[in-house]
DUF4960 domain-containing protein (Draconibacterium sediminis), 340 residues
Amino acid sequence: MDGPSVLDIVEDVTINSKSAEIDHLSGTINISLAGGTDLSSVVFEATVPDGVTVTPASGSSLDLNSPTQVVVSNGFSERTYMVHATLLPSKVAFLGDGTTIVEIADDDVKAAAQWTEATYGTDFIYISFDELSDEALNGVNVIVYVYDNVGTSDQPAALLEKLNVLSKFYVQGGKIVAGLLGTGLVEELGRDNSGLRNIIGTGEGGNNPDTWGVGFTGSEVANIISAGLDFYAPNMAYVIDAGYKEDHNALWNLGSITNAPYTTFNSLYGAEPIAAWDWAVGGQGFAGIIVWNPFDRFEGYIITIGIGGMEWNMNDGRDNPYLSNVHKIYKNSIDYLLNK
């Protein structure tokens, strides 16, 4: 028989620009879409060899509220696939030490929680450490955990008492965005055993005349997380202006990795460094934002954002003109994980 094989005639399928999983043996195409997606009108796109036709045509709008049939033909015979869609949980949960957001102790953490609530609206829930449980995480897709402190970088005892809940959520495929000193959660969960997260700042801070920035690597995921930033140079964006800075870094020191540090770190730990201080990203000696992909027994994702200049509230009361870049990095990170 001439023409493409009937068994694997479909090369690639995307639904709303997200790649679907194709099972040629069973003739099924499976896709998981973000919670809240209108399944009655999604964009179907298929890549097939020359000479193959697809019905409905690539670029069509499909109703996936129930399994939908797609037929492909190579001119000699045809194959039917059934497209199945499921919606991911839609909730974004913020973890904090206060009974309510208003009672959160740290000013940066409180500001982060308020921004997350304002950004995600009805899909937002706040969970205090004391209330953290399997039941509280029902319907949660992404946890946002921002932690800041003076004097110690140890994770809060009240959170560690519920570490088994977070571990279960993460191991089973949950996603977490961890910011500032909260990046230490990746170690507490057992996901990071590199021992390289050792650039830690917990001091009182002080006045500084410089403008600080973040530099991104330009990789595919780095471009997603940095999309929409106000860049001052390619892949470089400011995050805090001159004035008082807490300077609470929580970064990975990759100086001990002498050959292609970012690639080697990713190979060893299944975690891609995508950003550092703007002046340091080219040398790859430090990692400030890392995407921890599923690895070994861990089915979930974590994005750690440990660049100290990415503060949420200015202690001297000034307006930070680059705060929107901080917001966009966090929002892009959350949205990236919502679709995983």
Summary: The two ends are 40 Å apart (CA to CA).
